Amino acid sequence: MRSRWAEERGAGAALALAVACAALLLALLVVGVGTASIAQARAAAAAEAAALAAADARSGFADGAPCALAQAVAAASGARLEACALDGLDARVTAVVPVGPWRASGSAVAGPPTWGAP
After folding, report:
1. What domains appear along the chain, each with residue ranges and CATH number?
2. Beta bridge partners of 90
3. How far is the C-alpha of 55 from the C-alpha of 66, rounded, in Å?
């Protein structure tokens, strides 16, 4: 007498392959999100450092042109300076970090402290 499970031969291998593929796709998704998150943090940190450098140059605490100094600081942080705008003593910069075919960006503003301002 044949078992009723005899016709189900090989179904376990197909199921194991499907589960392995699903686990691989989930792992790739987690790694991709983690990589994008790290790139976003790097872009934000580079933008903050570049804005501080530009503001220091604008106010006379550092030598050099503000946006050129911001570019050098962003490059040293592994980012590319996308925008640099000066408004009085304030500096507004945007830095980008490549993430595969995409890019993560961060913006920052720096300037002298405004004591007692609301």
Report:
1. 8-110 (3.30.1300)
2. 87
3. 7
Query: CA–CA separation, 21 vs 108, rounded Å?
Result: 41
| Distance from C-alpha of 55 to C-alpha of 113, rounded to nearest angstrom | 11
- CB proximity list for 46: less than 8 A, separation 6 or greater: 73, 74, 77, 78, 79, 95, 97, 106
> For residue 24, which phi and psi values (nearest 5 degrees)?
-65, -45
Among 94, 105, 93, 107, CA closest to 58? 93
Token pair of 46 as six digits: 């580079």
What CA–CA distances, in Å, run from 32 to 28, 29, 78, 118?
Answer: 6, 5, 19, 41
pLDDT in tens, 30-86: 998 899 999 999 999 999 999 999 999 998 888 999 999 999 999 999 999 999 999
Q: Which residues pair with 93 in a beta bridge?
A: 84, 108
Higher pLDDT, 3 or 23: 23
What is the model's pLDDT at position 116? 63
